[in-house]
Structure formats: C-alpha cells, structure tokens
C-alpha cells in the first residue's frame, strides 16, 4: 500500500513540474512580438513633402494587410499594393494638404504590427485658378455651357478633369472638351431642358496643373436653366424669329453684316448684356471705320466682337431691307435706349445670358465653337473626344 502511495505522489509531482516548464519556457508563438515591421515614408510630422513620389508604405519581415491614407477633409487616397509589401498612391497628392496614414502588417504567424504617421505636403510658390461662367445662383438660357478658363496653361489635363465635376438635376449625360490648354467647357448633347439645376464642383486646391504650378481653389456653384428661347436671324430675309418654349412670339426686322463684313453663321450664345456700351472698330480690326460711344441694348455673341444690339444711327428703313453692319446684328433703337417700345429694347428685356441666337443664310463661315460660348457648333462625337 505504501509503495502505491509513493508511486502516485511521484506521478503527480512529475505532471505538475512538466506544466510549469511549458508555461514559463517562452515558446508560445502567440506571446512573441510580431516580426513584421512597417515603414512609412515620409516620417511622422514631416513638412513640405513632394506631391509626387513622396509617400510610400512598406513592410519587412511580413506583408501589409491594411493601408489607409486620408486628407484633412477625410477623403481617402487610392493606392496600389505591390508584392504584398509595398503600397504607393496611384496618383499625385494635393499640395498644402495634411495627410494621415495608418498601416498594418502581419508576420508568418499572423501577428500584427501597426504604424501611424501624419505629414503635410509642400506649399506651392506658383499657382493657378479657374475663372468660370455662369455665376452662382444665375438663371440662364438653355444654351449656356459651363466654361472654365485657367490662369495658367495646363499640361496635365487628366488631373484637372478629375478635380472638376458638372452634374445636373434631372440627370443628363455631360461631357467636357478642352479648347487649347487653358479652357475647359462642359455641355450635354443637346440644349439643357428648362428647369434643370446644374452644379459645378471644383476641387483644384493642391492639384498640379503643370510642373510646379498648383491650384488654390475649392468651389461649388449652382445655376438654373430658365425658359427656352431660341432666336433665328435669317440674313437673307433680314429678319429674326424669336421662339419661346417652342412657340414663335415675335418677328423682328434686322440689319446684319454687309458685303465684306458678313455676320458669322451658326449657333451663338449670349454671354454678356450691356444697357449701353462703346464700340470701337479699332478693337476688332476695322481701324477707325467707326467709334460709337453709346450703343444701346448690346448683347455679346462672340469673343471677336459679334453683338446683337440696338442701332439708332442707320435709319428705321434700313431694318428689314438692307444689311449694312460690320458683322453684328442690329435692331432698331432710340439713342440712349430709353424707349422701351423699340424692338431692341424689347429683345434686351426678354433675353437671358445663355439664350441662343442662330444665324442662317449669311455669306460667311460658321463661327468657331471657342469664339465665345458657341459650343453647339461642334458635333457631339467630336465634343466627347475631349480635344
């Protein structure tokens, strides 16, 4: 009996001793630190970091399982993981922007290692902005495009296109088109529908539009499309038909460009309105042929100087019978424009920025799409090509 008790005691001691050796020996892999190491470049707190090639996250002794990068507005930065151990952004970062980086890696035992860093990209010395039309809150005609003119020529158009969005309610496909390297316009395939609300969002702050030149702008503006008004000037007939929401509401006698100074054909969009303005032939290549200080009810149709405007100096019998202008479309008016009953005064009062004036049957070429806001003189297929 004593022998049996001694044997049982020996077994119990051996079992307890074996358990203590396993617990204190430090061989449990889950209790060991991760062998993975995360490196974030640039270092935490870095300033003046380059927007291109300045950010890199890597892992040694393991693989990356999570990389999250956000800017100071919480917007995520897209990136690409290579070989499981190197993460880099797929595009350029924005200048003058603070970024937060959180990365996690695991070793072959799936033990995690994490690192956090915050850094700020460089503040640019050379900048640009986009000057846009129409203005926030405007009600405009159905032909009004969104047009953005940049103060510096752009050499990275894709970056700019990613930073500018134009949307509409109700929704309609909208495409952009570059004119040169400093103008980007947006339009649908056909004229906007009346009542449409259009929104332009620009997030150009820190966007590198050309080497070393960065945007500084964040804007969001909305405008509304008013009633539809399409006016057609028939140069041969010397009259203009005004169609409002599909119904002809007025026919007005006109005088268009005379021989040698014909009016452009094509769809033109009213881009400016002036109750009275000066027109000087020297500014549009006509030398000293005319200089009229008080042209009434003038509405611009082209950058090159085409207007539809009031005319008090040609004599009322000219309108509807003779084309005698230097390329503009003239409507009978009184000097000073104070008589609201004249055709020019009526048309001015009933027109919006963005209304369309189409000229037909002139002995001249069709106006270029970028000569003013006359984007409708380009086919939709060509427009969607982008350039």
Automatic annotation (TrEMBL):
Sequence ranges assigned to domain FHA in this UniProt record: 223-313
The keyword Chloroplast is assigned to this record: no
MF term (GO), any:
transferase activity
Q: Give the E.C. number(s).
A: 2.-.-.-
Highest taxon in the source lineage? Bacteria
Q: Which PROSITE patterns match?
A: FHA_DOMAIN, LD_TPASE
Named in its record, the pathway it takes part in is: Cell wall biogenesis; peptidoglycan biosynthesis
Mark out the compositionally biased spans (Basic and acidic residues): 20-31
InterPro entries, per the entry: Big_10, FHA_dom, LD-transpeptidase, LD_TPept_cat_dom, Transpep_catalytic_dom
All copies of domain L,D-TPase catalytic, residue ranges: 229-360
- This protein's UniProt keywords: Acyltransferase, Cell shape, Cell wall biogenesis/degradation, Peptidoglycan synthesis, Signal, Transferase
Signal peptide position in this chain? Answer: 1-17
Q: Under which main EC class is this enzyme filed?
A: transferase
Renumbered to this chain, region (Disordered) spans 20-40
Annotated catalytic residues: 309 (proton donor/acceptor), 328 (nucleophile)
Query: Which PANTHER family does this entry report, sorted A to Z?
Result: L,D-TRANSPEPTIDASE, L,D-TRANSPEPTIDASE YCIB-RELATED
What protein does this entry describe? L,D-transpeptidase LppS
- According to its UniProt entry, this protein's organism is Streptomyces rimosus subsp. rimosus
- What gene makes this protein? lppS3
């Amino acid at each position: 009996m004593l022998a049996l008790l001694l044997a049982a005691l020996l077994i119990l001691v051996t079992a307890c001793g074996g358990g203590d050796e396993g617990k204190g020996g430090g061989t449990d892999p889950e209790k060991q630190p991760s062998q993975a190491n995360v490196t974030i470049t640039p270092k935490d707190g870095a300033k003046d970091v380059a927007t291109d090639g300045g950010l890199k996250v890597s892992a040694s002794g393991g693989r990356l399982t999570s990389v999250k990068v956000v800017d100071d507005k919480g917007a995520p930065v897209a990136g690409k993981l290579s070989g499981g151990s190197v993460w880099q952004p797929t595009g350029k970062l924005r200048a003058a922007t603070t970024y937060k980086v959180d990365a996690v890696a695991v070793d072959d035992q799936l033990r995690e290692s994490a690192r956090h860093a915050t850094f700020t990209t460089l503040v640019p010395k050379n900048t640009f902005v986009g000057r846009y039309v129409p203005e926030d809150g405007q009600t405009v005609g159905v032909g009004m495009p969104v047009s953005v003119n940049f103060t510096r020529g752009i050499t990275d158009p894709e970056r700019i296109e990613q930073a500018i969005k134009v949307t509409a309610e109700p929704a309609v496909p909208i495409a952009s088109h570059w004119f040169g390297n400093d103008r980007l316009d947006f339009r649908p395939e056909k004229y906007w529908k009346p009542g449409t609300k259009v929104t332009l969002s620009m997030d150009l702050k820190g966007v590198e539009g050309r080497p070393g030149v960065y945007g500084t702008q964040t804007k969001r503006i909305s405008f509304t499309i008013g009633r539809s008004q399409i006016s057609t000037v028939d140069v041969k007939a010397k009259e203009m038909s005004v169609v409002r929401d599909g119904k002809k509401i007025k026919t007005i006698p006109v005088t268009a460009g005379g021989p040698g100074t014909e009016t452009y054909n094509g769809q033109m969009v009213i881009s400016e309105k002036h109750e009275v303005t000066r027109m000087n032939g020297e500014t549009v290549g006509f030398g000293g042929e005319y200089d009229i200080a008080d042209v009434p009810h003038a509405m611009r149709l082209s950058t090159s100087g085409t207007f539809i405007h009031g005319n008090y100096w040609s004599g009322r019998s000219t309108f509807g019978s003779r084309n005698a202008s230097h390329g503009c479309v003239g409507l009978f008016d009184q000097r000073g424009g104070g008589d609201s009953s004249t055709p020019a005064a009526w048309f001015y009062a009933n027109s919006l920025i963005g209304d369309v004036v189409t000229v037909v049957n002139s002995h001249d070429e069709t106006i270029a799409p970028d000569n003013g806001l006359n984007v409708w003189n380009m086919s939709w297929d060509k427009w969607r090509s982008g350039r």
